[in-house]
TrEMBL record, chain B:
It comes from Piscinibacter gummiphilus. This is DUF1800 domain-containing protein. Pfam families: DUF1800. InterPro entries: DUF1800 (IPR014917).
Length: 386, 463
């Protein structure tokens, strides 16, 4: 009887120990990147409710100190994030504070490119940072089914340049792959792109074929993000005994809340938290939670001061969540940007570089050289047990 | 690079020109343009597109009184009903436009309207007013090949745009920067051509506009406009919205930015700065006439160079409409195509964000590629149904499509019930693909199955 059957019979929580062996190899690990599209308002996500400037900057947007879910004497979560509290209490969720980068670019498109490629603000790179981790040795560590799966978005983001695929429904993907025939990749850039995508489809479909995960017991939210979470868990569950998929890319949003932010943001965060809670449940059911790391990110946070439309304009630094069975959670990592010391655009000044996050994943999660992944030396962030 | 234009268009040249400036041409269309001199052909294309009028009236809802905003609905049920109506209207509008693209004798007009819809990307998801999207669509059509300057000024006070980029919420007291940023980054100058301070100053200049939702009209509210001095892009003055737009157009980066975008739409993925520069000058000197810029590009050697052929990727709309036009497949109702292009990543009136559809290789991901192939496969299976019983007439099919195969195949030396011979194979490739196929069609493939197999070839994605 395998672990999944056991779980579905008893719904038992298994001790981490039995999975320590499975998690021993970096290649067996699962990284789930959750992109909060449009620039999530960090100040109303992880709320500095006790800071006097917070309410002053946001006369109608500030959350009241008694509504936030207090994590300590200074910071609390937006009330919509209640489904995350059990993970915080189990120390499986940590909050990384003040992520950003020097010379922040407030364009959505350029800024997400910077995050996806882990470039400096002044350099333009084609490949996503995950692709560089693949060439830094991760690719050699296993015969992956596919190097990444993006679910629910056309763009591959951080997976660009890796041998990755995008899909919405794993079963349909496998069925439709019959429309593709193997070919040698050559031609102009456009044709080469088409052929490369085709070859990725063939390889991924091979590894995703088979009985698959079948129906899971975990209940997934019906919204788009919840369904992307479902597909992620199904693929992870179905990879037992196969090459595995090391990286998933999910998107949620749009968080581009220039006006009327309060209700929109509350709803987006609610869906996010429901989805992340289901993600944990599904990965536990798939027997992968101990070897999974879930990370949120966004192109930027939003302006500290609200605008006249009850919204916020483009900002800079923001906090992000990391969660998983190996996370040293229940704690903040780093320093909250100072609300009294804004930059020339009245934006928060970052206290940690997002490339520190990637460098930590490269070194501690995958065991590859972080310098080739983030193109420089960055201090690691202490959020992993492994 | 090949430095000369063809003196007369060969069939392949005509196919290239019509494929790039319209949708995919049928063999019949190609032969009507072959033999013309390039400037004759381009002049004819532009003249036709400038005179273009829709063939069918827009859906009836566009002529009804403006609907009240969704949030004015009294109760939950009324709101739900209004939302359902909004979706139905949007699909009807998109279906109407796709039908125009399918039937238009001047497809360049539709391509330009689509180009501007992508440039001034505005989504019904936020605007929530299908009538408003149609009013914007008319604006884009009106100026599609005319003055870019007038188009830009029109867009800046188009109610849908004012709502989409929060211009309607931009007040002197506390400016909303959304439109100010995107107008420079995406509509006129390009990233890196302005500073954060310029955005703040421009936002002040744009303050004071509001949307009267009952009349669907932009209104200027002087008391909410910042009348103070602004310093924008190195110029100082008491700029209002129109003056700020003209300051932007004064930048040398502006004509270059638009011409480069036209280049990527019509010529190749990488603009050649040496060619863009003089075209940009002519564009500006002409009073920002888009047709002048486009004419220069289409008559540049780069457009005709062999290395720039089959280097672009069909958008979902081009793929869907182009396949129908190319095979002269008639369609009962283009509404079915709305879902087809949406699944492939291009729902008309609903671009993903203000940057529009990124296009080129971004059109092709594993998800969208499989959807594209599924579309042509189903289309051909629908028209492949046993024709023997049907006689020689039009055949009903799953999409409500009709394909009279024999007259299409015969001029190419092929037959619906036979495997094409070598000469016919060459002609079929030339008619269907912009470049050599990657896979040979398996021996024994007959008639329409032969066309289906070609449509599944990777080369079919190129134009």
């Amino acid at each position: 009887m395998d672990r999944r059957q056991l779980l579905s019979l008893g719904g038992l929580a298994f001790p981490a120990l039995s999975w320590a062996q499975a998690a021993a190899s970096a290649a067996g690990r699962v990284l789930v990147l959750v992109e909060l599209k449009g620039g999530n308002d960090g100040l109303n996500t992880v709320v500095p409710y006790a800071h006097p400037a917070y309410a002053q900057l946001r006369p109608s947007l500030a959350l009241k100190a008694d509504e936030v879910l207090r994590l300590d004497g200074a910071l609390g979560l937006h009330p919509s994030l209640a489904p995350l509290i059990p993970m915080w209490e189990k120390r499986e969720l940590a909050v990384l504070l003040g992520l950003g980068y020097p010379q922040p670019n407030l364009s959505h498109f350029r800024s997400i490119e910077i995050w996806d490629t882990a470039s400096r603000a002044t350099e333009y790179l084609d490949e996503g940072w995950v692709a560089r981790a693949m060439s830094a040795g991760l690719r050699e560590s296993a015969r992956f089914t596919t190097e990444g799966v993006a679910i629910g978005s056309a763009s591959l983001g951080a997976l660009a340049g890796a041998n990755a695929v995008s899909l919405t429904n794993p079963e349909a993907f496998v069925t439709q792959a019959r429309l593709v025939r193997p070919a040698h990749v050559q031609g102009n850039a456009a044709l080469e792109h088409v052929l490369r995508v085709e070859s990725g489809v063939l390889q991924a479909a091979e590894g995703l074929r088979g009985p698959g995960a079948g129906a899971m017991n975990t209940e997934f939210p019906t919204h788009n993000f919840g369904q992307a979470v479902r597909a992620t868990c199904q693929i992870v569950a179905g990879q037992k005994g196969k090459g595995g998929v090391p990286v998933f890319h999910l998107t949620h949003g749009s968080f581009d809340t220039h006006r009327g932010q309060l209700a929109t943001h509350a709803n987006l965060l609610k869906q996010l938290a429901e989805g992340l809670a289901a993600l944990k449940a599904g990965l536990v059911e798939a027997g992968a939670w101990e070897r999974a790391l879930v990370v949120t990110y966004s192109e930027f946070g939003r302006r500290a001061r609200q605008n006249q439309s009850g919204g916020t304009d483009h900002g800079t630094a923001a906090p992000h969540f990391v969660m998983g069975g190996s996370v040293r959670g229940g704690r903040f990592v780093g320093t909250m940007p100072d609300l009294d010391r804004l930059d020339g655009n009245q934006n928060l000044v970052h206290t940690a570089d997002f490339r520190q996050l990637y460098a930590t994943i490269a070194r501690r999660w995958w065991g590859v050289n972080p310098e080739t992944v983030v193109r420089g030396t960055f201090d690691l962030l202490p959020f992993l047990e492994v | 690079m090949n430095t000369t234009l063809p003196s007369r268009l060969s069939a392949a040249d005509a196919r290239h020109l019509l494929g790039r400036t319209g949708f995919m041409p049928s063999p019949g269309e190609v032969s009507a343009w072959a033999g013309l001199a390039p400037d004759e052909a381009v002049n004819r294309l532009l003249a036709g597109a400038r005179r273009a009028e829709p063939r069918q009236p827009a859906p009836a809802f566009t002529r009804e009184p403006i609907r009240p905003p969704l949030r004015a609905q009294g109760d939950v049920d009324a709101r739900k009903e209004a939302l359902r109506q909004l979706r139905a209207d949007t699909v009807a509008l998109a279906g109407w436009w796709l039908q125009e693209m399918r039937d238009s004798p001047t497809p360049l007009a539709e391509r330009m309207a689509l180009f501007w819809h992508n440039h001034f990307a505005t989504s019904v998801q936020k605007v929530r007013q299908a009538q408003g999207m149609y009013i914007q669509h008319q604006l884009l059509r009106r100026h599609a090949l005319g003055s870019f300057r007038e188009l830009l000024h029109g867009v800046a006070r188009d109610p849908a745009m004012l709502i989409y980029l929060d211009g309607a919420a931009n007040r002197a007291e506390s400016p909303n920067e959304n439109f100010a940023r995107e107008v420079m980054e995406l509509f006129t100058l390009g990233e890196g051509q302005y500073s954060e301070q310029d955005i703040k100053e421009a936002a002040r200049a744009f303050s004071g506009w509001a949307v009267d939702r009952e009349a669907w009209a932009a209104r200027f509210r002087p008391r909410q406009h910042d009348r103070g001095d602004k310093t924008l892009l190195g110029q100082r003055g008491r700029f209002d919205a129109d003056a700020a737009l003209d300051v932007m157009l004064d930048q040398p980066a502006a004509p270059r930015f638009i011409v480069s975008k036209l280049w990527r739409e019509f010529v190749s993925p990488v603009p050649d700065a040496k060619v863009v520069e003089p075209v940009a000058q002519r564009f500006r000197e002409s009073g920002w006439r888009t047709d002048v810029a486009l004419r220069e590009l289409l008559l540049s050697p780069a457009f005709w160079a062999p290395q720039n052929r089959a280097v672009l990727i069909k958008s979902p709309v081009e793929l869907a409409v182009g396949t129908l036009r190319q095979f002269e497949i008639e369609l009962d109702n283009a509404q079915a195509l709305v879902g087809v292009t949406a699944r492939q990543g291009q729902m008309l009136f609903s671009p993903p964000n203000v940057k529009g559809w990124p296009g080129y290789t971004d059109w092709i991901t594993s998800t969208t590629l499989l959807d594209r192939k599924r579309f042509t496969e189903r289309l051909f299976r629908a028209v492949e149904q046993p024709r023997m019983e049907m006689g020689r007439g039009m055949q009903p099919g799953g999409f409500g499509v009709r394909f009279d195969a024999e007259p299409w195949l015969k001029p190419l030396g092929a037959w619906p019930d036979r495997e094409p011979d070598e000469a016919a194979r060459g002609k079929l490739v030339e008619a269907v693909l912009a470049t050599a196929p990657v896979h040979p069609v398996p021996a024994g493939t007959v008639g329409l199955s032969y066309l289906r197999a070609m449509s599944l070839d990777p080369a079919f994605q190129l134009k």
